[in-house]
Design goal:
CATH architecture: Orthogonal Bundle
Shape: elongated
Order of helices and strands: HHHEEH
Structural class: mainly alpha
Number of strands: 2
Largest sheet: 2 strands, antiparallel
CATH class: Mainly Alpha
Distance between the termini: 36 Å
Strand order of the largest sheet: 1-2
Number of helices: 4
Helix content: 55-70%
CATH topology: Arc Repressor Mutant, subunit A
Amino acid sequence: MKQTSDYTIFASFLRKNMENHIKAIHCLFRVHELIQQERTGSPDEIADILQISRGQLYKMINSLKDYGASIEYDRIRRTFYYTGTFDITLNQLVLF
């Protein structure tokens, strides 16, 4: 009886972590897409759109930088942008 309960708790834990991981990957791809299109808006606006905190946004931007992206913010155009070519694949993010 206890094994079933432990298994259920463990399965629930794995499912929740997998869902969180998938959401994080989806969100990171969305940030990447908006930066590529140079239409992110301000940091607060993009965080609102993605329903994440500003701190989480900057962690994602730093993750993209860790993958080799050079990202700047233009205050006049109110957007993040890549200063060079950059793309990211799902294979790179699986190790995220």
